[in-house]
Design a protein that fits this description.
This protein has helices at residues 16-26, 49-53, 64-72, 85-102, 123-133, 152-155, 173-181, 199-209, 216-222, 242-251, 281-297, 330-336, and strands at residues 7-11, 31-38, 58-62, 107-109, 139-140, 226-231, 234-238, 257-261, 269-273, 308-314, 321-325. By secondary structure, the chain is of the alpha/beta class. It has 2 domains: 7-181, HUPs (Rossmann fold), CATH 3.40.50; 224-336, no CATH class. The strands form 2 sheets. A 6-stranded antiparallel sheet has the order 6-7-9-8-10-11, sandwiched between helices. The chain has a 5-stranded parallel sheet with strand order 3-2-1-4-5, sandwiched between helices. Strand 1 (7-11), helix 1 and strand 2 (31-38) form a beta-alpha-beta unit.
């Protein structure tokens, strides 16, 4: 493979560490291509802070089709929540390595800092991730490079190792000092960013995984509303405000059931059947009745004994079915809450 020796691919998040790592490499006269790898668990687009300080082309690539498979069976397991961080980093470096080859670049960089994140940035796992990606000797972590073994771009003098750094640990004092020295005064506060590390979202994600096949629409639905398991293969999502009602409507699939009240102000709810649910009429009607009673729980009313009109329709159908229900008690409703 013919390579352009003075070119690198950077895993770019838009955060301060990735900005600084890129600047360190740029200061050695090396061209950098930024790569933002997108999943439904991260922001749709990277924070724009880096564009203000870095003059680099930025490639945005959706890796959800690959990520979805590893999330079902991560080789190296999950972290504290439903976060397969080691497998995720391996996947990201694989994609960066593939871009490196296509672009005839000579190495890959990231903003990782030794010891900053306990699961993926301890020394053993940094080595493991590099090795498992298949591009280990081409992966350079400029902010902690002095504390790590030399990589090929350093040994071959593409990169001057003495101009790299030895940052480690969770303190960001040195990064902030470096940013100030370089005139980088506006950047995002440090955060994991991945929703799979959030306990509430992770709990919902674990439940979704138990239902078998899922897609990015199912994941977007996890981000809004109250969620209830009506059945192992039936889930109800109840909007909490007008904004969430609109999002739920926008995410509805053709076979989803939409529930709302005409007699009382309240939410829009969505009932989704997963693949293992057999739509037997009796069981479906029982489930729709329960979904209506839960929806009624969140309608404005004077008494819990009030009768509430709940209209139900499939998304692509104009035919509505009317149920008259009383709302489920708070205690019974909590039994179904995810």
């Amino acid at each position: 493979m013919t390579v352009e020796k003075r070119k690198a691919v950077a895993l770019y998040s838009g955060g301060l560490d990735s900005i600084l790592a890129i600047r360190l490499i740029q200061q050695q006269g090396i061209e950098v291509i930024g790569l933002y790898l997108k999943t439904p668990f991260l922001k749709e687009e990277p924070d724009p802070y880096g564009e203000k300080y870095l003059n680099i082309p930025l490639i945005v690539k959706d890796i959800f089709p690959y990520f979805r498979k590893l999330l079902l069976h991560p080789k190296y397991g999950f972290g504290k929540n439903e976060n397969p961080c080691i497998d995720c980093r391996i996947l990201m470096f694989k994609k960066a390595g593939e871009l490196m080859v296509r672009e005839k670049a000579s190495f890959v960089i990231s903003g990782e800092v030794l010891g900053q994140r306990p699961m993926t940035q301890n020394k053993n796992n940094l080595f493991l991730i590099s090795k498992e990606s298949g591009y280990g000797d081409f992966i350079l972590r400029p902010l902690s490079a002095i504390l790590l073994p030399e990589t090929k771009p350093e040994r071959t003098n593409i990169v001057n190792r003495s101009r790299l750094m030895d940052i480690q640990g969770r303190s960001r004092k040195r990064q902030m000092e470096l940013a100030k020295r370089w005139g980088i005064v506006s950047y995002p506060s440090p955060a994991g960013g991945c929703k799979l590390t959030e306990p509430g979202f992770a709990h919902r994600m674990k439940d979704l995984l138990s239902k078998g096949y899922y897609d990015s629409n199912d994941i977007e639905l996890l981000k809004v509303g109250r969620h209830f398991n009506i059945h192992q293969s039936l889930k109800l999502v109840v909007g909490r405000n007008e904004k969430e009602n609109k999002i739920i409507l926008s995410l509805a699939k053709p076979d989803d059931f939409l529930l709302s009240s005409s007699s009382h102000k309240g939410p829009i709810s969505l009932l989704r059947c997963y693949s293992s649910f057999e739509k037997q009429e009796d069981e479906l009607m029982e489930s729709l009745d329960l979904a209506g009673r839960i929806t009624g729980r969140y309608c404005d009313k004077e008494r819990d004994t009030d009768l509430i009109d709940i209209y139900i329709r499939e998304k692509d159908s104009q035919t509505k079915k009317l149920l008259q229900v009383t709302s489920l008690s708070e205690q019974d409703t909590s039994h179904y809450l995810i």
